[in-house]
Amino acid sequence: MSADPHCIFCKIVAGQIPSKKVYEDDELLAFHDINPWAPVHILIIPKQHIVSMADVNEAHAGMLGRMMALSPRLMLDLGVTGGFRHVINTGRDGMQEVMHLHLHVMGGPRPWLKG
Ligand code: 5GP
Ligand code: ZN
Hints:
Oligomer: single chain
Shape: globular
CATH superfamily: HIT-like
Helix content: 10-25%
Strand content: 15-25%
Structural class: alpha+beta
Bound molecules: guanosine-5'-monophosphate, zinc ion
Number of domains: 1
Number of helices: 2
Radius of gyration: 14 Å
Largest sheet: 5 strands, antiparallel
Distance between the termini: 33 Å
């Protein structure tokens, strides 16, 4: 599986940087955002190093679908019952900071810090 040795999320996948994991399988990893905008704020990422949504194509449809389909179960497990929000930032103009594809899933009672 491809990894970028300089990528912070690849290091999280490899266990070289600690994270608060909420889910893991062969293809995906989910963990709490270090700087949460909402009472519950997780990131779901592919373990494979894919830079952003600008780099995906139809071959990634299954993996992207799994990222989306996993999120309701994880939010329920984390006690989120009032709804949640998905965000994916892509590229410079999309305000992406970490260049490894990630799906933000945020929920919990408002007010939130952001979002
Ligand atoms: P972006 O702006 O790229 O969509 O979001 C990147 C997210 O990654 C931010 O919400 C930021 O708080 C989170 N983040 C950055 N570095 C780390 C880290 O080392 N660990 C965790 N758990 N989250 C991180
Ligand atoms: Zn990476």
